[in-house]
## 1
Amino acid sequence: MFALVLGMILFTLIRGIAQWNKNNHSPRLTVGASVVGKRMDVSRHHHHGSDNFHHTSTSTTYYVTFQVESGDRMELTVSGGEYGLLAEGDQGSLSFQGTRYLGFERQ
């Protein structure tokens, strides 16, 4: 069981490093786009301490779907602050690098 958990952690770590490296080697692009959707994913984590206390923590990941001028859609992870500032229907210039959100400037 320990080996399985360790393997999953290593797989996730390696996949994250590979995506980070791919983003770093991708060009920075700025294109016309509009916000067509927003969603959030709330994860709950339960921890059982050695002191028989149960601890719960949550984390929220924010996603925004953009439609670019070509008609293609892309969903990017954004910060909570950016998520709150963007509204469906906003139009402007989207800056990104691979799957990394860099910013959105309204027109």
Note: Residues 2-24 form the longest helix (23 residues).
## 2
Amino acid sequence: MARKILLNYSVEKVKEPILSEVIRETGLALNILYAEFGAKGGEILISVEAPDPDVERAVELFRKKGLEVKEIKRAIRLDRESCIDCGACLSLCPSGALYQDKDNTVLLDEDKCVYCELCVPACPVRALELSKF
């Protein structure tokens, strides 16, 4: 299972090639799911599919290089009590994280979610929410 890690960059650290250095040092393939940078620094959400010791090594390297690191356990939430299984969100999901099972129940596979947020405003009953990082 892929682990999702949020990297917070200070204004000073934004100009350093920290992500590429960690990739080079660990040999891990890191997938960038989300990135945003501005005058106050920035953040990158990455997905890492590797054995836990390898991920922990990468996390420690990010910290040693001055980044704030937080593992994201859940970002998009599907409220099954509110969901009416209308499927309005399904065609907008580019990763297939939202899907219907054989009973036409809408389900969310969090491992596939790339946090594009397209599904959240599409839901007519607001059964989908984005957890803020």
Note: The radius of gyration is 17 Å.
